[in-house]
Amino acid sequence: MDRHGIRAHSKLTRKLPSAFLIDWDETITKGDTIHLVAEASNATKKRDPPFEYYVSVYNRAYDDYKQEFLTKRGEVNSIEKEMDFQRGMKKVEMSSVNELCKLKFFEGLTVQNLVAQSSKVSLRENFLDFLGKCRLYNVPVIILSVNWTKLIMESVLRSHGFSEDSMDIQYIVNELEFSGGVCTGVFDSSRSVRTGIDKLEYLVKVRSTLGDVCYIGDSSTDIPCLVNSDAGIVMENGSAIKSLQKINVSLSSLSQFDTLEKDVVYYGNWHDISAHFFKNHLDTKKTD
């Protein structure tokens, strides 16, 4: 990686990567799920101030930071500026997180409250098929998310037969602190995944251990990993596409290429991803 954090790695062909790092909200799921964590907390008791207060704290911090950045640096129209902008997002993300902890919004929330929310999560089409193929060929899948807990994720995927226990999947995600199954109102300080830069740091750690990595995401928080992984894939309707175009990142349809170049981000859906990485392997299996 150069001083701007831009990747300098070899292209990845249909050869399977050493690991898939995958975002959760709106990449694996059809919609955002962080609101389900807030709903679970509201189910335990009426919260005052309500969750909307913390959203407003975040929005004010974001608007102030964006205006400050635009005044000093101008429009975010290059990879360098995008990386710099994302480096400054830590204070924005922590504005609402610190307030949630200060006012103990999640205090009294139980593990059972969160697990019950898993029934409200809808997965994108063909993701489970992709996950099954990763299991078949022993390719590690790591969910890397800025979400606030893995408990809902675990419950959803376990219901479909995939779990950390069977080594199908791993999670790198923030976690609320629990004592006896009840939330203390603060976050576990042992892990912090708040920004796209935080995600990139974990990607670098995984790569140093496992080797080449394919990153799959959908939004602006995923951009540092999309442009720094050995293969970056954005969901075909992901909000990151417009941002990537704005900073002049080359975009191509995954379904049209056998070889993934290091300076291109590819777009597609879970069917396209499975077809790209597993077609040759499945064809070989049929002829064995």
Q: For the record, give the distance between the C-alpha atoms at the N and C termini, rounded to a whole number.
A: 40 Å
CATH class category: Alpha Beta
Low-confidence stretches: 6-10, 283-288
Structural class estimated from helices and strands: alpha/beta
The coarse overall form would be globular
Topology, number of strands: 9
Helix content: 40-55%
CATH topology: Rossmann fold
**How many helix segments?**
11
Percentage of residues in DSSP E strands: 5-15%
Please tell me the total number of domains.
1
Give the H and E element order. Answer: EHHHHHHEHEEEHEHEHEEH
Structure, explained:
The chain is an alpha/beta fold and 288 residues long. The chain has one domain (19-287): Rossmann fold. Helix content is 43%, strand content 15%. Residues 6-10 and 283-288 have low confidence and may be disordered. InterPro entries: HAD-like_hydrolase_phosphatase, HAD-like_sf, HAD_sf.
